[in-house]
Amino acid sequence: MAEKHIAEGLFDGPVLSVSCDPVGGGSTDDLTAKTTVFECFVATKNNGDGTLSGKKYHATMNWDTDNYTYGFGPPRGGGSAGALLHTWRKTLLARDSGGGPALSNLTDSLVR
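The chain above was modelled as a monomer; its predicted structure follows.
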């Protein structure tokens, strides 16, 4: 999605890195949670002072259905992911707070 936004001129690239963190008290360690909302940061510029600039995206992972939805901008209100732009079905192998396969699939989709 970010690369498409760059190609469309929405903002300058390239994508340097992507990071996602659970919001609203969410956790990738809580195996009883049905969903986790993430705020994601797509870095597109190295500022040369140890900081990066870029754009925010949001994502909601549904652990029961192995679906995730994501869109441009930060999550909106009360843990809701707001206006969701895309839904993709992926085979999610496991939840892993260290950035395992499930989170890797999600961040890969944000980049493309």
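Residues 2-111 form one domain.
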